[in-house]
Specification:
By secondary structure, the chain is mostly beta strands. Helices cover 2% and strands 34% of the residues. It contains 1 helix and 12 strands; from the N terminus they run βββββββαβββββ. Strand 11 (177-183) and strand 12 form a beta hairpin.
Length: 195
């Protein structure tokens, strides 16, 4: 089953909901992640409550936090699930707090707008679809399902994101889509995009 992610409008930057933008929520002591390619701080894109996934029976099995490098667009291979220009963190649910931002250009750390992403089974007559949860990915190019670096199995498709309704503060997927995958047993996640 697939759920759509609908634009729910502005929401607080640290809201404990599925959203794009704002600041990541993580266990206390979590450091803001850095790009493995250029060492600059990553831009926070979105958090997805895995309890929103179709077919999830646990009240809140975790949170997926998605990041991408905005320091040198196009130079850190942000489209790749393994090059280090992006990062997906699979975090435990509960006792999460905002991750302190590093001393850096704040425009590079987060999106300018914070939007709730509400799960729904049907698209509205008006409004913006921000992506999808569950089901199968709608690849723009070819199947790039990543393999878990721990167990080597193909990861489960978790979410597909579009750039969003505001071109000034949109996630930069080259006018394409991002794909998030998880391996829940190993606690691993991956992010890539295609255009």
């Amino acid at each position: 089953m697939t759920m759509l992610l609908l634009d729910g409008g502005p929401v607080a930057p640290d809201a404990p909901v599925t959203r794009t933008g704002g600041v990541p929520l993580a266990p206390a002591g979590t450091a803001w992640p850095a790009c493995a390619a250029c060492a600059g701080p990553l831009q926070f894109l979105a958090q997805i409550l895995l309890g929103d996934l179709p077919g999830t029976t646990a009240p809140s099995p975790g949170v997926l936090a998605l990041f991408m490098c905005a320091n040198r667009p196009g130079q850190c291979a942000q489209w790749s699930p393994t090059a280090g220009g992006n990062l997906a963190l699979l975090l435990p649910a509960g006792d999460l707090e905002p991750v302190p931002a590093p001393d850096a250009d704040q425009d590079l750390l987060g999106l300018g707008a914070v939007r709730a992403a509400l799960p729904a089974t049907t698209a509205p007559a008006t409004g913006t679809v921000l992506g999808r949860l569950g089901g199968t990915p709608r690849w723009l190019q070819y199947d790039e399902t990543p393999h878990c670096p721990t167990c080597a199995r193909p990861m489960d498709f978790t979410a597909e994101l579009t750039e969003g309704p505001d071109p000034v503060t949109a996630m930069n997927f080259g006018s394409g889509r991002a794909y998030a995958h998880t391996c829940t047993p190993c606690g691993r996640a991956a992010l890539l995009w295609q255009c």
